[in-house]
Amino acid sequence: MYSVEWLCGVKNSQQSYKNIDLNGNFIFENDPNFTDIQLWDRLNRTLVVNSFDECEHYVLGGWSYTQNLNIEHFSQLVIIILLSSMLVFRRKHFFKN
Predict the structure, then answer these.
(1) How many domains does the chain have?
(2) How far apart are CA 85 and CA 82, in angstroms?
(3) Residue 16 or residue 40, greater confidence
(4) Domain check: are 29 and 59 in the same one?
């Protein structure tokens, strides 16, 4: 897991972490001095953060800097493994008789 400082950089102000209202009505203010950062969550959703406070909020919520295994690639892998397993099982069963 990445730290807030590693992902978001060093906070410019001495403010402590803001407790964001969980009802979804909070709007983060864009910081023109902050370099945009793209983050991913466990479901491979992505977002771009535009301020340290926004970055800190999402990183503490479990978002990270690296993209997880893409769900399409994962699905293809599962299908290939299932088909391969079926072929091996049928082959063993066919030659047994």
Answers:
(1) 2
(2) 5
(3) 40
(4) yes
pLDDT, position 48: 93
Is 62 found in the same domain as 78? Answer: no
Q: Are 44 and 82 in a shared domain?
A: no
- Mean pLDDT across 68-87: 81
Cα separation of 27 and 20, whole Å?
A: 10
pTM of the model: 0.59
Do 21 and 61 lie in a common domain?
yes
Q: Do residues 18 and 40 both lie within one domain?
A: yes
List the one residue out of 9, 13, 1 whose CA is nearest residue 68: 1
Q: In the predicted model, is pLDDT for residue 1 greater than 60?
A: no
Q: Rounded distance, CA 83 to CA 96, Å?
A: 20
Distance, in Å, from the CA atom of 57 to the CA atom of 47, rounded to the nearest integer, reads: 12
More confident residue, 65 or 35: 35
